[in-house]
Design a protein that fits this description.
By secondary structure, the chain is of the alpha/beta class. The chain is built from eight helices and 15 strands.
Length: 356
């Protein structure tokens, strides 16, 4: 184009239809000046529900919209030739209750900026309420200083999101739950444990022991253990330097049992592979792994492929590239859970039951 703008329409159509959730209120109606359907909920101060997507995970956003039974909002997301991000909201959002789906995964800085610009555009377009739906919250591992003269990056990102104009945040399995307190706006923090545990129960495995790969994940592993009716083991590890973990001891019995590693984030894969080897050395029959966020490096994928893990189950909070896909890696969708939460927020209903 003459102005150097290279738009990218988001997202492509979903491959499979999803049964829509029932929204209370009258039949969908078309408002003048809008090119999309608008759903009105009686007695709700935010009558129009609209969902938009950045470029980070448009397929997840489309699944969410399908589950809600509404079309995904139209937007142009692209870049000028000088590299600056360009955002334009193409639908009328005046007075609307808007949800922007954008995990801040790799490329993290670009996806954060894209989210901030979309929020700003919606605010200037007079959206009544803007919720940032961030299935994966980038910089979550930098929630505290580990040495002098370091930033607390997770807090800075929270400040940026609120300053841009977000009224609330919807996220999933924060690496550090304390990040909720970094925001001065409401935060709905979902857990993917229910989705992951349901998958494990379908496998109908015998003598399952849930293993936390580190002391920081004990609470998560214990909640997962309660869901599947298993025992618990804990691996103690240390990090001599960033992204490098060394396992050195384990508490709990795994001998002649099926071990299930549970973690919120899989990045380099080093922790998972080392833990799997230690568990097998202690006499376990098999080792499976469940993780919410697959923020995998190329090296991690190769490690997992050639690791002693029987399988790795993750969610689609972060999209996997074709190079990251393997028969050993299975992806579960969290779209129905996010859609139900969005519906409840929109209609002013409690979402507490979804946090467990």
């Amino acid at each position: 184009m003459s102005d150097g703008y290279e738009p990218d329409r988001h997202p492509p159509g979903a491959e499979a239809p999803v049964e829509p959730l029932a929204l209370s209120g009258p039949t969908p109606m078309v408002r003048r000046g809008q090119r999309r359907r608008s759903y009105t909920v009686e007695g709700n101060m935010h009558p129009d529900l609209q969902v938009f997507s950045g470029s980070a995970n448009p397929m997840l956003a489309q699944e969410i919209a399908d589950a809600l039974g509404i079309p995904l909002g139209h937007s142009l997301v692209g870049a000028f030739k000088n590299g600056e991000t360009r955002i334009r909201i193409e639908d009328n959002v005046r007075g609307a209750d808007v949800f922007v789906v954008q995990p801040t995964c790799k490329p993290t800085d670009h996806n954060i900026m894209e989210l901030l610009l979309m929020i700003d555009a919606l605010r200037r377009a007079s959206a009544q309420r803007i919720t940032a739906v961030i299935p994966y919250y980038g910089y979550a591992k930098q929630e505290k200083k580990t040495a002098g003269r370091e930033p607390i990056s997770a807090k800075l990102v929270a400040n940026l999101i609120a300053t841009a104009g977000a009224d609330r945040v919807l996220t999933m399995d924060l690496h550090a739950p304390a990040i909720e307190g970094f925001f001065d706006i409401p935060v709905d923090h979902l857990r993917a444990g229910g989705v992951l545990a349901a998958h494990l129960r379908k496998l109908d495995l015998d003598d399952v022991v849930v293993v936390s790969p580190d002391a920081g994940g004990v609470l998560r592993a214990n909640e997962f253990r309660a869901r599947v009716g298993a025992s618990l083991a804990i691996i103690a590890k240390q990090r001599p330097r960033p992204d490098v973990a060394e396992a050195f001891e384990m508490v709990g019995d795994v001998r002649d049992k099926t071990a299930v590693l549970v973690d919120d984030l899989l990045s380099t894969g080093g922790t998972a592979v080392e833990a799997a080897r230690m568990i097998l050395d202690r006499g376990a029959r098999d080792v499976y792994m469940y993780a919410t966020h697959a923020a995998m490096t190329p090296e991690a994928v190769e490690l997992i492929k050639h690791s002693p893990l029987r399988s790795l189950v993750v969610t689609n909070t972060i999209p996997l590239t074709l190079e990251q896909r393997d028969d050993k890696i299975e992806v579960l969708t969290v779209a129905p859970l996010l859609a139900e939460t969005i519906k409840r927020i929109h209609e002013g209903e409690s979402v507490s039951a979804l946090f467990t």
